[in-house]
Amino acid sequence: MTGKLSASEANAIKAASIQRDFRTDTITYPEPGMIEAQANASLGDSVYHEDQNTSDLEARVAALSGKEAALFCVSGTMIIRIADAMKADGQGVIMHCDGARMWEVVAKTGSSLEELCRPFDTVSLCMSKGLGAPIGSILVGPKAHIEKARWFRKLFGGGIRQSGALAAAADYALTNHLPLLSNTHKLATFLAASLASLGVQILLPVETNMLWIGVAHLGFSLRDLISRAKTDAGITLGGARLIVHFQVTEQAHCIDTFDLPVDGRY
Hints:
Elements: H1 7-18, H2 32-39, H3 52-65, E1 69-73, H4 76-88, E2 96-99, H5 102-109, H6 113-117, E3 122-126, E4 137-141, H7 143-155, H8 164-176, H9 181-197, E5 201-202, E6 210-214, H10 222-233, E7 241-243
Parallel strand pairs: 2-3
Antiparallel strand pairs: 1-4, 3-4, 5-6, 6-7
Helix pairs in contact: 2-8, 3-8, 4-7
């Protein structure tokens, strides 16, 4: 009888599989440095605005974005709900930007976050997509607006008491993973070229870490490709959209390790 896997064994298996997983860039796993940062995080209550790591992260991102203040939230979805409530509450927000992948734009263009956020009153910045934090998005904007948003966050059940460990992980991701994003763009471009050489249609220009593919003209379905990639090469695809994250290995881009059929037959 096979025993249950230990946590370390399960983690090792997951780490290996993620290196060949193109479904999304939110499935990266915390590395030892991030876990250490979490273990050493502050233990204050962020609902009362008394957690040091959370306050430091908010101040850091506010400064980077050129805004007066910032608020750490559990998700971009929470921030959208808060932004909608602020509009209904007459807070005078003219323009809000859902910057879920703004860090990718920073990496691609070399523009500062401040320059990219400048046209908007408020901006939501995801710390999970691309950067690889386990959880969290940050709302930046005018100080008075952020204070009101803090009230709405609690009203909607989004207050996090001891949020220091989560903020520490997000801060670690910003420091250590943002510099890695430009390489994911290069790998995505390489992947697109490799697939195109096999006859796969690249549906849109590859600008960052995403590409969209089409295979119907080759005589087989996308579902067939997903199944074959998994079975023959251990590569996980989720659909027509492929996303390269910073824990994808260059070897994972060798999709020609299995043969794509040219006549629709496997």
